[in-house]
Amino acid sequence: MSVELIKGSHFRNLALNRPPDTYGRLSLLNSVGQEISRCKTSVRRGQPNPVYKETFVFQVALFQLSDVTLLVSIYNRRSMKRKEMVGWIALGQNSSGEEEQLHWQDMKESRGQQVCRWHVLLEA
């Protein structure tokens, strides 16, 4: 399964009056919520509308797609290795909403074609 995190929009740094330093973290979870694999983007510094355009490949068999969840989280990296979650979504078995569930269903039925959608992050 290939996943591309393309861009974010309207990220704010609530603590400071400047755009945040953000990165994305993608975690693939099994049916009981255990992490199978994880990866993250590089940090985009001082960008309220960061462009990531990074692709990640997860080894998932076609028959396993109904049993896994992809958790996508965006973090604001603060000073001294501290981080705070900006927001998150989940797609797959435990989708965080109807749009995410539809995206996952369309991806499963797409026969290898890319399915691209915007998602609104849930607050951490």
TrEMBL record:
Pfam families: C2. SUPFAM superfamilies: C2 domain (Calcium/lipid-binding domain, CaLB). One of its GO terms (molecular function) is phospholipid binding. The chain crosses the membrane at residues 56-75. Residues 1-119 form the C2 domain. InterPro entries: C2_dom (IPR000008), C2_domain_sf (IPR035892), SYT14/14L/16 (IPR043541). Keywords: Membrane, Transmembrane, Transmembrane helix. Belongs to the synaptotagmin family. This is Synaptotagmin XVI. It comes from Salarias fasciatus. The lineage of its organism: Eukaryota, Metazoa, Chordata, Craniata, Vertebrata.
